[in-house]
User: Which sequence fits this backbone?
Protein backbone atom coordinates (compact mmCIF):
# COMPACT_ATOMS: atom_id res chain seq x y z
CA UNK A 1 0.00 0.00 0.00
CA UNK A 2 2.69 2.42 1.07
CA UNK A 3 4.77 1.47 -1.95
CA UNK A 4 1.88 1.98 -4.32
CA UNK A 5 1.28 5.39 -2.82
CA UNK A 6 4.91 6.40 -3.21
CA UNK A 7 4.86 5.17 -6.80
CA UNK A 8 1.70 7.12 -7.52
CA UNK A 9 3.30 10.22 -6.04
CA UNK A 10 6.43 9.79 -8.14
CA UNK A 11 4.34 9.40 -11.27
CA UNK A 12 2.22 12.40 -10.39
CA UNK A 13 5.18 14.64 -9.69
CA UNK A 14 6.93 13.69 -12.93
CA UNK A 15 3.70 14.25 -14.82
CA UNK A 16 3.47 17.70 -13.22
CA UNK A 17 7.01 18.53 -14.34
CA UNK A 18 6.25 17.55 -17.92
CA UNK A 19 3.02 19.56 -17.85
CA UNK A 20 4.93 22.58 -16.60
CA UNK A 21 7.47 22.30 -19.40
CA UNK A 22 4.91 21.63 -22.09
CA UNK A 23 2.63 24.47 -21.05
CA UNK A 24 4.84 27.16 -22.62
CA UNK A 25 5.64 25.02 -25.65
CA UNK A 26 1.96 24.29 -26.18
CA UNK A 27 0.92 27.91 -25.86
CA UNK A 28 3.47 29.01 -28.45
CA UNK A 29 2.67 26.13 -30.81
CA UNK A 30 -1.09 26.45 -30.46
CA UNK A 31 -1.46 30.20 -30.40
CA UNK A 32 1.22 31.08 -32.93
CA UNK A 33 1.63 27.97 -35.06
CA UNK A 34 5.36 27.86 -34.40
CA UNK A 35 7.20 24.86 -33.08
CA UNK A 36 9.80 26.51 -30.93
CA UNK A 37 12.89 24.33 -30.91
CA UNK A 38 14.56 26.76 -28.52
CA UNK A 39 12.00 26.04 -25.81
CA UNK A 40 14.21 23.43 -24.20
CA UNK A 41 16.95 26.03 -23.96
CA UNK A 42 14.58 28.47 -22.28
CA UNK A 43 14.08 25.77 -19.66
CA UNK A 44 17.85 25.48 -19.43
CA UNK A 45 18.21 29.25 -19.00
CA UNK A 46 15.66 29.28 -16.19
CA UNK A 47 17.65 26.56 -14.47
CA UNK A 48 20.90 28.42 -15.05
CA UNK A 49 19.57 31.67 -13.58
CA UNK A 50 18.47 29.82 -10.47
CA UNK A 51 21.89 28.26 -10.18
CA UNK A 52 23.51 31.65 -10.65
CA UNK A 53 21.48 33.14 -7.82
CA UNK A 54 22.48 30.22 -5.62
CA UNK A 55 26.15 30.49 -6.55
CA UNK A 56 26.15 34.23 -5.81
CA UNK A 57 24.83 33.50 -2.33
CA UNK A 58 21.34 34.83 -2.92
CA UNK A 59 18.39 32.84 -1.63
CA UNK A 60 17.34 30.19 -4.13
CA UNK A 61 13.74 31.28 -4.22
CA UNK A 62 14.91 34.72 -5.40
CA UNK A 63 16.50 33.08 -8.43
CA UNK A 64 13.35 31.10 -9.03
CA UNK A 65 11.23 34.24 -8.97
CA UNK A 66 13.64 36.09 -11.24
CA UNK A 67 14.00 33.27 -13.79
CA UNK A 68 10.61 33.56 -15.52
CA UNK A 69 10.93 37.34 -15.81
CA UNK A 70 14.44 37.27 -17.24
CA UNK A 71 13.66 34.45 -19.67
CA UNK A 72 10.36 36.11 -20.62
CA UNK A 73 12.16 39.38 -21.37
CA UNK A 74 14.71 37.51 -23.46
CA UNK A 75 11.87 35.76 -25.29
CA UNK A 76 10.25 39.11 -26.03
CA UNK A 77 13.50 40.51 -27.40
CA UNK A 78 14.19 37.41 -29.51
CA UNK A 79 10.68 37.48 -30.90
CA UNK A 80 11.04 41.09 -31.96
CA UNK A 81 14.49 40.59 -33.47
CA UNK A 82 14.38 37.14 -35.00
CA UNK A 83 11.28 34.98 -34.61
CA UNK A 84 9.07 37.65 -36.19
CA UNK A 85 10.64 37.04 -39.58
CA UNK A 86 9.70 33.40 -39.60
CA UNK A 87 5.91 33.50 -39.24
CA UNK A 88 5.31 33.04 -42.93
CA UNK A 89 7.31 29.80 -43.08
CA UNK A 90 6.91 27.31 -40.24
CA UNK A 91 9.76 25.08 -41.40
CA UNK A 92 12.20 27.95 -41.52
CA UNK A 93 10.90 28.92 -38.08
CA UNK A 94 11.79 25.45 -36.87
CA UNK A 95 15.33 25.74 -38.20
CA UNK A 96 15.73 29.30 -36.95
CA UNK A 97 14.62 28.50 -33.42
CA UNK A 98 16.81 25.43 -33.60
CA UNK A 99 19.84 27.61 -34.36
CA UNK A 100 18.81 29.91 -31.55
CA UNK A 101 18.60 26.97 -29.18
CA UNK A 102 22.05 25.84 -30.28
CA UNK A 103 23.48 29.26 -29.47
CA UNK A 104 21.89 29.35 -26.00
CA UNK A 105 22.83 25.76 -25.21
CA UNK A 106 26.44 26.15 -26.24
CA UNK A 107 26.74 29.48 -24.41
CA UNK A 108 25.53 27.85 -21.22
CA UNK A 109 27.85 24.91 -21.85
CA UNK A 110 30.70 27.38 -22.19
CA UNK A 111 29.71 28.98 -18.89
CA UNK A 112 29.26 25.85 -16.79
CA UNK A 113 31.52 23.42 -18.64
CA UNK A 114 30.59 19.78 -18.91
CA UNK A 115 29.60 19.51 -15.27
CA UNK A 116 26.46 18.46 -13.48
CA UNK A 117 25.83 21.25 -11.01
CA UNK A 118 23.45 20.71 -8.15
CA UNK A 119 21.17 23.25 -6.58
CA UNK A 120 19.62 22.37 -3.21
CA UNK A 121 15.88 22.36 -2.77
CA UNK A 122 14.57 25.57 -1.27
CA UNK A 123 12.04 23.55 0.69
CA UNK A 124 13.95 20.51 1.84
CA UNK A 125 12.96 17.50 3.81
CA UNK A 126 9.97 15.31 3.40
CA UNK A 127 6.35 15.25 4.32
CA UNK A 128 5.48 12.27 6.48
CA UNK A 129 2.09 10.70 6.23
CA UNK A 130 2.14 7.79 8.59
CA UNK A 131 4.94 5.53 7.44
CA UNK A 132 5.26 7.19 4.06
CA UNK A 133 7.70 9.94 3.17
CA UNK A 134 7.23 12.11 0.13
CA UNK A 135 9.61 14.82 -0.98
CA UNK A 136 8.34 18.23 0.08
CA UNK A 137 9.85 19.94 -2.96
CA UNK A 138 8.20 17.61 -5.44
CA UNK A 139 4.97 18.19 -3.64
CA UNK A 140 5.52 21.94 -4.01
CA UNK A 141 6.13 21.47 -7.74
CA UNK A 142 2.79 19.71 -8.10
CA UNK A 143 1.02 22.54 -6.27
CA UNK A 144 2.76 25.24 -8.32
CA UNK A 145 1.98 23.38 -11.56
CA UNK A 146 -1.69 23.25 -10.67
CA UNK A 147 -1.66 26.94 -9.78
CA UNK A 148 0.14 27.98 -12.96
CA UNK A 149 -2.15 25.82 -15.07
CA UNK A 150 -5.21 27.39 -13.48
CA UNK A 151 -3.85 30.90 -13.86
CA UNK A 152 -2.96 30.31 -17.53
CA UNK A 153 -6.42 28.99 -18.17
CA UNK A 154 -8.02 31.99 -16.49
CA UNK A 155 -5.70 34.37 -18.32
CA UNK A 156 -6.60 32.93 -21.70
CA UNK A 157 -10.29 32.38 -21.13
CA UNK A 158 -11.35 35.19 -18.82
CA UNK A 159 -9.25 38.27 -19.46
CA UNK A 160 -9.32 40.74 -22.30
CA UNK A 161 -5.70 39.86 -23.08
CA UNK A 162 -6.73 36.24 -23.48
CA UNK A 163 -9.54 37.27 -25.74
CA UNK A 164 -7.13 39.21 -27.94
CA UNK A 165 -4.76 36.26 -28.07
CA UNK A 166 -7.55 33.93 -29.10
CA UNK A 167 -8.84 36.41 -31.66
CA UNK A 168 -5.36 36.67 -33.16
CA UNK A 169 -5.12 32.90 -33.28
CA UNK A 170 -8.53 32.45 -34.85
CA UNK A 171 -8.28 35.09 -37.55
CA UNK A 172 -5.25 37.38 -37.62
CA UNK A 173 -6.47 39.70 -40.34
CA UNK A 174 -9.84 40.24 -38.71
CA UNK A 175 -8.09 40.82 -35.41
CA UNK A 176 -5.91 43.45 -37.05
CA UNK A 177 -8.92 45.04 -38.65
CA UNK A 178 -10.57 45.22 -35.23
CA UNK A 179 -7.70 47.27 -33.91
CA UNK A 180 -5.74 44.56 -32.13
CA UNK A 181 -2.01 44.94 -32.55
CA UNK A 182 -1.19 41.42 -33.66
CA UNK A 183 2.61 41.85 -33.60
CA UNK A 184 2.37 42.97 -30.00
CA UNK A 185 0.12 40.02 -29.16
CA UNK A 186 2.53 37.61 -30.83
CA UNK A 187 5.42 39.15 -28.95
CA UNK A 188 3.60 38.95 -25.64
CA UNK A 189 2.49 35.36 -26.26
CA UNK A 190 5.99 34.28 -27.13
CA UNK A 191 7.40 36.05 -24.09
CA UNK A 192 4.75 34.41 -21.92
CA UNK A 193 5.58 30.97 -23.30
CA UNK A 194 9.28 31.60 -22.72
CA UNK A 195 8.58 32.79 -19.16
CA UNK A 196 6.71 29.57 -18.42
CA UNK A 197 9.69 27.60 -19.68
CA UNK A 198 11.97 29.68 -17.48
CA UNK A 199 9.79 28.96 -14.47
CA UNK A 200 9.79 25.26 -15.30
CA UNK A 201 13.56 25.26 -15.50
CA UNK A 202 13.88 27.09 -12.20
CA UNK A 203 11.60 24.67 -10.41
CA UNK A 204 13.08 21.45 -11.76
CA UNK A 205 16.76 22.28 -11.35
CA UNK A 206 16.91 20.96 -7.74
CA UNK A 207 15.44 17.66 -8.96
CA UNK A 208 17.49 17.09 -12.12
CA UNK A 209 20.61 19.23 -11.43
CA UNK A 210 21.99 21.59 -14.04
CA UNK A 211 23.74 20.38 -17.19
CA UNK A 212 23.94 21.77 -20.70
CA UNK A 213 21.72 19.16 -22.32
CA UNK A 214 18.98 19.57 -19.74
CA UNK A 215 16.70 21.30 -22.24
CA UNK A 216 17.29 18.83 -25.05
CA UNK A 217 16.15 16.03 -22.81
CA UNK A 218 12.76 17.63 -22.32
CA UNK A 219 12.39 19.15 -25.74
CA UNK A 220 11.60 15.92 -27.54
CA UNK A 221 9.32 14.76 -24.75
CA UNK A 222 7.57 18.13 -24.86
CA UNK A 223 7.05 18.06 -28.61
CA UNK A 224 5.71 14.55 -28.55
CA UNK A 225 3.34 15.59 -25.77
CA UNK A 226 2.10 18.60 -27.71
CA UNK A 227 1.46 16.50 -30.82
CA UNK A 228 -0.27 13.76 -28.84
CA UNK A 229 -2.46 16.28 -27.10
CA UNK A 230 -3.32 18.20 -30.21
CA UNK A 231 -2.07 21.55 -31.47
CA UNK A 232 -4.46 24.46 -31.43
CA UNK A 233 -6.03 24.42 -28.02
CA UNK A 234 -4.85 25.18 -24.52
CA UNK A 235 -6.11 22.00 -22.93
CA UNK A 236 -4.79 19.67 -25.67
CA UNK A 237 -1.05 19.97 -24.95
CA UNK A 238 -1.73 19.85 -21.21
CA UNK A 239 -3.63 16.61 -21.62
CA UNK A 240 -0.89 15.23 -23.84
CA UNK A 241 1.76 16.24 -21.32
CA UNK A 242 -0.16 14.58 -18.52
CA UNK A 243 -0.42 11.37 -20.55
CA UNK A 244 3.20 11.31 -21.71
CA UNK A 245 4.52 12.31 -18.30
CA UNK A 246 2.48 9.69 -16.53
CA UNK A 247 3.45 6.99 -19.01
CA UNK A 248 7.15 7.78 -18.90
CA UNK A 249 7.09 7.76 -15.12
CA UNK A 250 4.86 4.70 -14.76
CA UNK A 251 6.38 2.30 -17.30
CA UNK A 252 9.83 2.05 -15.68
CA UNK A 253 8.11 0.45 -12.69
CA UNK A 254 7.11 -2.54 -14.80
CA UNK A 255 9.97 -2.87 -17.32
CA UNK A 256 13.58 -1.87 -17.98
CA UNK A 257 13.87 1.94 -17.98
CA UNK A 258 15.53 2.11 -21.40
CA UNK A 259 12.83 0.00 -23.02
CA UNK A 260 10.14 2.04 -21.27
CA UNK A 261 11.65 5.30 -22.48
CA UNK A 262 11.74 4.15 -26.08
CA UNK A 263 8.34 2.49 -25.88
CA UNK A 264 6.67 5.74 -24.81
CA UNK A 265 8.03 7.51 -27.87
CA UNK A 266 7.10 4.72 -30.24
CA UNK A 267 3.57 4.55 -28.85
CA UNK A 268 3.23 8.31 -29.10
CA UNK A 269 4.44 8.47 -32.71
CA UNK A 270 2.12 5.63 -33.70
CA UNK A 271 -0.73 7.39 -31.96
CA UNK A 272 -0.04 10.67 -33.79
CA UNK A 273 0.25 8.83 -37.08
CA UNK A 274 -3.26 7.45 -36.79
CA UNK A 275 -4.81 10.43 -35.07
CA UNK A 276 -3.00 13.50 -36.42
CA UNK A 277 -5.36 15.93 -34.73
CA UNK A 278 -4.36 14.60 -31.32
CA UNK A 279 -6.32 13.72 -28.22
CA UNK A 280 -8.32 16.89 -28.21
CA UNK A 281 -9.03 18.41 -31.57
CA UNK A 282 -10.16 21.94 -32.16
CA UNK A 283 -9.10 25.44 -31.42
CA UNK A 284 -9.78 27.77 -28.54
CA UNK A 285 -9.05 27.47 -24.87
CA UNK B 1 5.14 58.02 -26.70
CA UNK B 2 3.12 55.43 -28.62
CA UNK B 3 3.72 57.47 -31.74
CA UNK B 4 7.45 57.33 -31.26
CA UNK B 5 7.21 53.58 -30.78
CA UNK B 6 5.34 53.28 -34.03
CA UNK B 7 7.94 55.28 -35.85
CA UNK B 8 10.71 53.08 -34.57
CA UNK B 9 8.81 49.96 -35.57
CA UNK B 10 8.35 51.22 -39.07
CA UNK B 11 11.91 52.33 -39.37
CA UNK B 12 13.28 48.87 -38.58
CA UNK B 13 11.50 46.93 -41.33
CA UNK B 14 12.39 49.63 -43.83
CA UNK B 15 16.04 49.31 -42.99
CA UNK B 16 15.92 45.51 -43.16
CA UNK B 17 14.04 45.72 -46.42
CA UNK B 18 16.86 47.82 -47.79
CA UNK B 19 19.40 45.22 -46.80
CA UNK B 20 17.37 42.47 -48.41
CA UNK B 21 16.94 44.50 -51.57
CA UNK B 22 20.64 45.07 -51.75
CA UNK B 23 21.30 41.37 -51.29
CA UNK B 24 18.71 40.46 -53.90
CA UNK B 25 20.27 42.96 -56.26
CA UNK B 26 23.71 41.48 -55.98
CA UNK B 27 22.46 37.93 -56.31
CA UNK B 28 20.48 39.04 -59.34
CA UNK B 29 23.67 39.92 -61.12
CA UNK B 30 25.13 36.60 -60.03
CA UNK B 31 22.13 34.82 -61.53
CA UNK B 32 22.66 36.49 -64.84
CA UNK B 33 26.35 35.77 -64.88
CA UNK B 34 25.73 32.19 -63.82
CA UNK B 35 23.22 31.57 -66.54
CA UNK B 36 25.73 32.78 -69.07
CA UNK B 37 28.74 30.89 -67.80
CA UNK B 38 27.49 27.73 -66.16
CA UNK B 39 29.11 28.07 -62.76
CA UNK B 40 28.09 24.70 -61.36
CA UNK B 41 30.47 22.45 -63.36
CA UNK B 42 33.31 24.85 -62.57
CA UNK B 43 32.60 24.68 -58.83
CA UNK B 44 32.35 20.90 -58.99
CA UNK B 45 35.57 20.66 -60.96
CA UNK B 46 37.46 22.89 -58.52
CA UNK B 47 36.27 20.88 -55.53
CA UNK B 48 37.19 17.60 -57.23
CA UNK B 49 40.68 18.76 -58.20
CA UNK B 50 41.28 20.14 -54.71
CA UNK B 51 40.13 16.82 -53.25
CA UNK B 52 42.37 14.83 -55.60
CA UNK B 53 45.43 16.89 -54.75
CA UNK B 54 44.78 17.14 -51.01
CA UNK B 55 46.75 14.05 -49.82
CA UNK B 56 49.78 15.14 -51.84
CA UNK B 57 50.14 18.40 -49.95
CA UNK B 58 48.67 17.47 -46.57
CA UNK B 59 50.58 15.85 -43.76
CA UNK B 60 49.61 12.32 -42.78
CA UNK B 61 47.41 13.21 -39.83
CA UNK B 62 45.63 15.78 -41.98
CA UNK B 63 44.95 13.17 -44.64
CA UNK B 64 43.23 11.09 -41.98
CA UNK B 65 41.17 14.12 -41.07
CA UNK B 66 40.40 14.80 -44.74
CA UNK B 67 39.17 11.22 -45.15
CA UNK B 68 36.73 11.76 -42.31
CA UNK B 69 35.52 14.98 -43.92
CA UNK B 70 34.94 13.22 -47.25
CA UNK B 71 32.88 10.54 -45.49
CA UNK B 72 30.86 13.22 -43.73
CA UNK B 73 30.36 14.94 -47.08
CA UNK B 74 28.88 11.70 -48.37
CA UNK B 75 26.60 11.70 -45.35
CA UNK B 76 25.66 15.32 -46.03
CA UNK B 77 24.75 14.32 -49.56
CA UNK B 78 22.15 11.90 -48.19
CA UNK B 79 20.52 14.60 -46.10
CA UNK B 80 20.59 17.01 -49.01
CA UNK B 81 18.70 14.55 -51.20
CA UNK B 82 16.00 14.29 -48.57
CA UNK B 83 15.72 17.90 -47.45
CA UNK B 84 17.15 19.91 -50.32
CA UNK B 85 15.29 18.10 -53.07
CA UNK B 86 12.15 16.66 -51.53
CA UNK B 87 11.64 19.05 -48.64
CA UNK B 88 11.46 16.30 -46.04
CA UNK B 89 12.94 17.58 -42.80
CA UNK B 90 14.78 14.54 -41.53
CA UNK B 91 16.13 15.45 -38.11
CA UNK B 92 17.15 11.83 -37.63
CA UNK B 93 19.43 11.14 -40.56
CA UNK B 94 22.07 9.81 -38.14
CA UNK B 95 19.78 6.88 -37.40
CA UNK B 96 20.67 5.37 -40.78
CA UNK B 97 24.29 6.49 -40.60
CA UNK B 98 24.79 5.03 -37.15
CA UNK B 99 22.78 1.86 -37.50
CA UNK B 100 24.79 0.93 -40.59
CA UNK B 101 27.95 1.69 -38.61
CA UNK B 102 26.80 -0.59 -35.81
CA UNK B 103 25.76 -3.23 -38.35
CA UNK B 104 29.14 -3.47 -40.04
CA UNK B 105 30.90 -3.27 -36.68
CA UNK B 106 28.94 -6.32 -35.55
CA UNK B 107 29.75 -8.10 -38.82
CA UNK B 108 33.43 -7.46 -38.25
CA UNK B 109 33.34 -8.33 -34.55
CA UNK B 110 31.12 -11.41 -34.48
CA UNK B 111 31.44 -12.92 -37.95
CA UNK B 112 34.90 -11.67 -38.95
CA UNK B 113 33.52 -10.29 -42.19
CA UNK B 114 35.57 -7.33 -43.33
CA UNK B 115 35.61 -7.87 -47.09
CA UNK B 116 34.89 -4.54 -48.65
CA UNK B 117 32.50 -6.07 -51.19
CA UNK B 118 30.44 -7.50 -48.37
CA UNK B 119 30.48 -4.84 -45.68
CA UNK B 120 29.76 -1.79 -47.80
CA UNK B 121 26.70 -3.30 -49.51
CA UNK B 122 25.61 -4.61 -46.12
CA UNK B 123 25.87 -1.14 -44.58
CA UNK B 124 24.02 0.39 -47.50
CA UNK B 125 21.32 -2.23 -47.17
CA UNK B 126 20.95 -1.60 -43.45
CA UNK B 127 20.53 2.13 -44.03
CA UNK B 128 18.09 1.44 -46.84
CA UNK B 129 16.01 -0.97 -44.76
CA UNK B 130 15.76 1.33 -41.76
CA UNK B 131 14.89 4.28 -43.98
CA UNK B 132 12.30 2.23 -45.82
CA UNK B 133 10.66 1.18 -42.56
CA UNK B 134 10.77 4.57 -40.90
CA UNK B 135 9.99 6.52 -44.06
CA UNK B 136 7.24 4.14 -45.05
CA UNK B 137 5.66 4.53 -41.67
CA UNK B 138 6.05 8.29 -41.39
CA UNK B 139 5.36 9.32 -44.97
CA UNK B 140 2.89 6.86 -46.42
CA UNK B 141 -0.69 6.41 -45.34
CA UNK B 142 -4.14 7.72 -45.92
CA UNK B 143 -3.47 11.26 -44.74
CA UNK B 144 -0.38 13.09 -45.98
CA UNK B 145 1.87 13.70 -42.99
CA UNK B 146 2.65 17.22 -41.90
CA UNK B 147 6.22 18.42 -42.10
CA UNK B 148 6.27 18.88 -38.35
CA UNK B 149 5.19 15.29 -37.81
CA UNK B 150 7.88 13.91 -40.09
CA UNK B 151 10.64 15.99 -38.54
CA UNK B 152 9.47 15.08 -35.06
CA UNK B 153 9.15 11.42 -36.00
CA UNK B 154 12.68 11.23 -37.40
CA UNK B 155 14.07 13.15 -34.43
CA UNK B 156 12.33 10.80 -32.05
CA UNK B 157 13.57 7.78 -34.01
CA UNK B 158 17.14 9.00 -33.71
CA UNK B 159 16.75 9.79 -30.02
CA UNK B 160 15.21 6.40 -29.32
CA UNK B 161 18.00 4.61 -31.20
CA UNK B 162 20.56 6.52 -29.16
CA UNK B 163 18.88 5.44 -25.93
CA UNK B 164 18.66 1.82 -27.06
CA UNK B 165 22.29 1.72 -28.13
CA UNK B 166 23.34 3.13 -24.76
CA UNK B 167 21.33 0.60 -22.85
CA UNK B 168 21.98 -2.52 -24.89
CA UNK B 169 24.90 -4.56 -23.63
CA UNK B 170 25.29 -6.49 -26.90
CA UNK B 171 26.00 -3.19 -28.66
CA UNK B 172 28.56 -2.20 -26.06
CA UNK B 173 26.39 0.21 -24.12
CA UNK B 174 27.85 3.66 -23.46
CA UNK B 175 31.24 2.70 -24.85
CA UNK B 176 30.08 1.39 -28.19
CA UNK B 177 32.11 -1.16 -30.10
CA UNK B 178 35.85 -0.44 -30.02
CA UNK B 179 38.69 -1.58 -32.25
CA UNK B 180 36.89 -2.78 -35.34
CA UNK B 181 39.14 -4.71 -37.70
CA UNK B 182 40.04 -2.76 -40.85
CA UNK B 183 38.26 -3.29 -44.14
CA UNK B 184 40.01 -5.75 -46.40
CA UNK B 185 40.21 -6.51 -50.09
CA UNK B 186 41.95 -9.72 -51.16
CA UNK B 187 44.43 -9.62 -48.32
CA UNK B 188 45.01 -5.85 -48.46
CA UNK B 189 43.82 -3.98 -45.39
CA UNK B 190 42.50 -0.44 -45.64
CA UNK B 191 43.93 1.47 -42.72
CA UNK B 192 43.90 5.24 -42.29
CA UNK B 193 45.93 6.93 -44.97
CA UNK B 194 46.02 7.93 -48.63
CA UNK B 195 44.65 4.59 -49.92
CA UNK B 196 41.59 4.87 -47.72
CA UNK B 197 41.27 8.51 -48.73
CA UNK B 198 41.19 7.77 -52.43
CA UNK B 199 38.82 4.86 -51.90
CA UNK B 200 36.39 7.13 -50.08
CA UNK B 201 36.83 9.91 -52.60
CA UNK B 202 36.12 7.47 -55.43
CA UNK B 203 32.96 6.33 -53.71
CA UNK B 204 31.92 9.93 -53.11
CA UNK B 205 32.42 10.81 -56.76
CA UNK B 206 30.45 7.79 -57.96
CA UNK B 207 27.60 8.44 -55.53
CA UNK B 208 27.68 12.14 -56.38
CA UNK B 209 27.36 11.43 -60.08
CA UNK B 210 24.53 8.97 -59.47
CA UNK B 211 22.72 11.51 -57.31
CA UNK B 212 23.30 14.21 -59.87
CA UNK B 213 21.84 12.01 -62.55
CA UNK B 214 18.90 11.27 -60.27
CA UNK B 215 18.07 14.87 -59.41
CA UNK B 216 18.43 16.00 -62.99
CA UNK B 217 16.05 13.33 -64.20
CA UNK B 218 12.30 13.61 -64.52
CA UNK B 219 12.12 12.13 -61.03
CA UNK B 220 14.37 14.85 -59.65
CA UNK B 221 12.31 17.55 -61.28
CA UNK B 222 9.17 16.11 -59.72
CA UNK B 223 10.96 16.16 -56.38
CA UNK B 224 11.93 19.79 -56.78
CA UNK B 225 8.31 20.53 -57.59
CA UNK B 226 7.32 18.66 -54.47
CA UNK B 227 9.57 20.87 -52.41
CA UNK B 228 8.15 24.05 -53.90
CA UNK B 229 4.47 23.13 -53.94
CA UNK B 230 3.40 19.67 -52.93
CA UNK B 231 -0.27 20.14 -53.70
CA UNK B 232 0.34 21.22 -57.25
CA UNK B 233 2.56 18.21 -57.91
CA UNK B 234 -0.18 15.98 -56.52
CA UNK B 235 -2.70 17.60 -58.85
CA UNK B 236 -0.44 16.80 -61.78
CA UNK B 237 -1.00 13.16 -60.99
CA UNK B 238 2.25 12.35 -59.22
CA UNK B 239 1.96 10.22 -56.12
CA UNK B 240 3.69 12.72 -53.88
CA UNK B 241 3.91 10.42 -50.86
CA UNK B 242 5.50 7.63 -52.89
CA UNK B 243 8.08 10.00 -54.36
CA UNK B 244 8.93 11.15 -50.86
CA UNK B 245 9.24 7.63 -49.51
CA UNK B 246 11.50 6.64 -52.42
CA UNK B 247 13.89 9.55 -51.99
CA UNK B 248 13.88 9.06 -48.22
CA UNK B 249 14.90 5.44 -48.75
CA UNK B 250 17.64 6.39 -51.20
CA UNK B 251 18.87 8.97 -48.71
CA UNK B 252 18.93 6.29 -46.04
CA UNK B 253 20.98 4.01 -48.27
CA UNK B 254 23.57 6.72 -48.94
CA UNK B 255 23.71 7.52 -45.22
CA UNK B 256 24.20 3.81 -44.53
CA UNK B 257 27.10 3.65 -46.97
CA UNK B 258 28.67 6.69 -45.31
CA UNK B 259 28.08 5.20 -41.87
CA UNK B 260 29.80 1.91 -42.69
CA UNK B 261 32.80 3.76 -44.12
CA UNK B 262 32.90 5.95 -41.02
CA UNK B 263 32.83 2.95 -38.70
CA UNK B 264 35.79 1.33 -40.46
CA UNK B 265 37.71 4.56 -40.75
CA UNK B 266 37.39 5.53 -37.10
CA UNK B 267 37.74 1.93 -35.96
CA UNK B 268 34.92 2.21 -33.44
CA UNK B 269 31.26 3.08 -33.19
CA UNK B 270 29.55 4.71 -30.23
CA UNK B 271 25.98 5.70 -29.37
CA UNK B 272 26.36 9.33 -30.42
CA UNK B 273 26.65 8.10 -33.98
CA UNK B 274 22.94 7.25 -34.15
CA UNK B 275 21.85 10.11 -31.95
CA UNK B 276 20.62 13.65 -32.13
CA UNK B 277 24.10 15.18 -32.07
CA UNK B 278 25.21 13.71 -35.38
CA UNK B 279 21.75 14.24 -36.88
CA UNK B 280 22.15 17.91 -36.05
CA UNK B 281 25.61 18.09 -37.51
CA UNK B 282 24.46 16.97 -40.91
CA UNK B 283 21.66 19.54 -40.89
CA UNK B 284 24.28 22.18 -40.18
CA UNK B 285 26.47 21.09 -43.09
CA UNK B 286 23.70 21.20 -45.61
CA UNK B 287 22.02 24.41 -44.49
CA UNK B 288 25.39 26.06 -44.36
CA UNK B 289 26.65 24.95 -47.72
CA UNK B 290 23.35 25.33 -49.49
CA UNK B 291 20.53 22.86 -49.66
CA UNK B 292 19.15 21.83 -52.99
CA UNK B 293 22.56 21.76 -54.66
CA UNK B 294 24.51 18.57 -54.20
CA UNK B 295 27.83 20.37 -54.27
CA UNK B 296 26.53 22.74 -51.59
CA UNK B 297 26.21 19.86 -49.16
CA UNK B 298 29.76 18.70 -49.90
CA UNK B 299 31.18 22.20 -49.55
CA UNK B 300 29.20 22.74 -46.35
CA UNK B 301 30.66 19.62 -44.79
CA UNK B 302 34.17 20.61 -45.83
CA UNK B 303 33.86 24.19 -44.55
CA UNK B 304 32.17 23.37 -41.24
CA UNK B 305 34.52 20.52 -40.42
CA UNK B 306 37.57 22.33 -41.73
CA UNK B 307 36.95 25.51 -39.79
CA UNK B 308 36.06 23.64 -36.62
CA UNK B 309 39.28 21.62 -36.94
CA UNK B 310 41.27 24.77 -37.51
CA UNK B 311 39.68 26.60 -34.59
CA UNK B 312 39.55 23.67 -32.23
CA UNK B 313 42.95 24.41 -30.72
CA UNK B 314 42.23 27.90 -29.49
CA UNK B 315 38.50 28.44 -29.66
CA UNK B 316 37.10 25.04 -28.92
CA UNK B 317 34.58 26.39 -26.41
CA UNK B 318 33.14 29.22 -28.41
CA UNK B 319 33.17 27.54 -31.81
CA UNK B 320 29.72 25.91 -31.40
CA UNK B 321 28.32 29.30 -30.41
CA UNK B 322 29.83 30.94 -33.48
CA UNK B 323 28.50 28.07 -35.58
CA UNK B 324 25.01 28.64 -34.18
CA UNK B 325 25.22 32.38 -34.84
CA UNK B 326 26.42 31.85 -38.40
CA UNK B 327 23.69 29.29 -38.97
CA UNK B 328 21.09 31.76 -37.74
CA UNK B 329 22.46 34.45 -40.04
CA UNK B 330 22.47 32.06 -42.99
CA UNK B 331 18.88 31.01 -42.30
CA UNK B 332 17.76 34.60 -41.94
CA UNK B 333 19.60 36.21 -44.82
CA UNK B 334 20.87 33.43 -47.09
CA UNK B 335 18.27 30.67 -46.98
CA UNK B 336 19.96 28.98 -49.92
CA UNK B 337 23.29 28.71 -48.14
CA UNK B 338 26.79 29.91 -48.92
CA UNK B 339 26.74 28.34 -52.35
CA UNK B 340 24.12 30.87 -53.44
CA UNK B 341 26.85 33.52 -53.47
CA UNK B 342 28.28 31.95 -56.61
CA UNK B 343 25.44 29.84 -57.92
CA UNK B 344 22.21 31.14 -59.41
CA UNK B 345 18.71 29.88 -58.76
CA UNK B 346 18.50 28.47 -62.30
CA UNK B 347 21.26 25.99 -61.77
CA UNK B 348 19.67 24.63 -58.62
CA UNK B 349 16.81 23.16 -60.59
CA UNK B 350 18.61 22.50 -63.84
CA UNK B 351 17.29 22.97 -67.33
CA UNK B 352 15.14 20.65 -69.32
CA UNK B 353 14.28 20.42 -72.96
CA UNK B 354 15.08 23.41 -75.13
CA UNK B 355 17.38 26.02 -73.65
CA UNK B 356 15.44 29.04 -72.46
CA UNK B 357 16.29 32.20 -74.37
CA UNK B 358 18.18 34.76 -72.30
CA UNK B 359 16.79 37.97 -73.61
CA UNK B 360 14.80 39.46 -70.73
CA UNK B 361 17.72 40.03 -68.43
CA UNK B 362 20.50 40.35 -70.93
CA UNK B 363 22.52 43.47 -70.19
CA UNK B 364 23.07 45.69 -73.19
Assistant:
Amino acid sequence: MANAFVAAFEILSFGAIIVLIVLGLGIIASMMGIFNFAQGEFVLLGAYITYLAYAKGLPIWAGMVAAPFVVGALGFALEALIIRRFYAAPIVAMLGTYALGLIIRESVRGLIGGFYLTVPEPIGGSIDIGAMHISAWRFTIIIITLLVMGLCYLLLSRTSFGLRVRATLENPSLARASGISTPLIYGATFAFGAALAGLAGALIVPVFSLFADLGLRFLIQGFVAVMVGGVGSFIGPVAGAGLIGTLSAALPWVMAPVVADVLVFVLAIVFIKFRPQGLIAGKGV
Amino acid sequence: MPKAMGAVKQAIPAEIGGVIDAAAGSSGTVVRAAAARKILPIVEGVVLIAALLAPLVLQDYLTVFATRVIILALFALSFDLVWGYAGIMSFGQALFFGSAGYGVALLARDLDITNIFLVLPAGTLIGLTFALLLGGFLLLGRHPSSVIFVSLGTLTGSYAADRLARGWYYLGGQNGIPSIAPMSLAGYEFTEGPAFYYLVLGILVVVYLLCRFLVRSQFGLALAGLRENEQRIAFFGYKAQHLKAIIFTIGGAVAGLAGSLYAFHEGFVWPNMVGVVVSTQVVLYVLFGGSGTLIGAVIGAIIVEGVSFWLSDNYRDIWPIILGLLLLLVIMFRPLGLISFVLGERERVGSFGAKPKEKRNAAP
Observations:
- Chain A has a mean pLDDT of 83.
